[in-house]
Amino acid sequence: MNQAQLLLKATRARTLPVMIMPVVIGAVLAWQQGYAFQWGLFLLTFVGALAAHLGANVTNDVFDFGEGTDQAAQQLMPQGTTLATGSQELMSGSISLKAFRGLAVVLFALALLCGIIIAFARPWALAFGVAGFLLAFFYVAPPLKLAYIGRDLGEIDILISFGILPLVGAYYVQSGMITASALLAALPIGLYTTAVLYFHHFLHWRADAEVGKVTPIVALGERNARIAGAIILLLIALTIILDASLQVYPWYSFLAAFTVLPVLQAVRQATGDLKLYLKLMAANMNGNLLAGLIIFIALLVRGIFHV
Known about the structure:
mainly alpha; single chain
């Protein structure tokens, strides 16, 4: 494995689409509403948001490793009920904990640099960046450790930091405005990203329970947590339909609501088997990306053809 491949794996770059979607949709929404598209500002927003996302991934692995969450999952893997989803590079020692911390600093520094440059044109951009950093950092970092103390604070954190802030922030950078339509547009995107994290918990909830990480699955139990997951999916569909009916998104973007159906089916079938939970994760990721693509195309069509 070369250095580039190792870096991509260590930062879990495969998760970048969940950040790309809100940033792109926020920028295109502003353009579709009549604001001139600022390519330079968009590229800075795009690079900064992706660097912050990767920094958050690395930070999450650093603190989960420090808490012993990843090690607990590794020990439970032979039972076939848990999957270790933390950094294998940390577990194997191929990258040191010090290097991981340094990587997080570099990624957040890059995001900060982008934010500072943007702030010359959009002064409030730094506020979005700082808020996103604090939410990403204290998701797992003491003294807050929102993902560990439960009460759905971790999920609320993800909704804001990976949905509302990047979409509304990208919209603000393009338009110079923060509007109710941008906030409404962020809800289904943020909820879909929250669902990605939510269903991810099913892969390692037993290890989480061992180290005192009170995820919703630990708090509710598998059966009730699946019901709660189905409710999140229904909320996604309802907020998409709400945005379509209010013309936040074009009316035909309601088609994106149907992307939750395969995920709901996967939730119904996922009855405790690890392979079924992996299928649920895949279905949810596919639904997330497809919904974002439908909304993106709908905004482009309305912006170009005014329909």
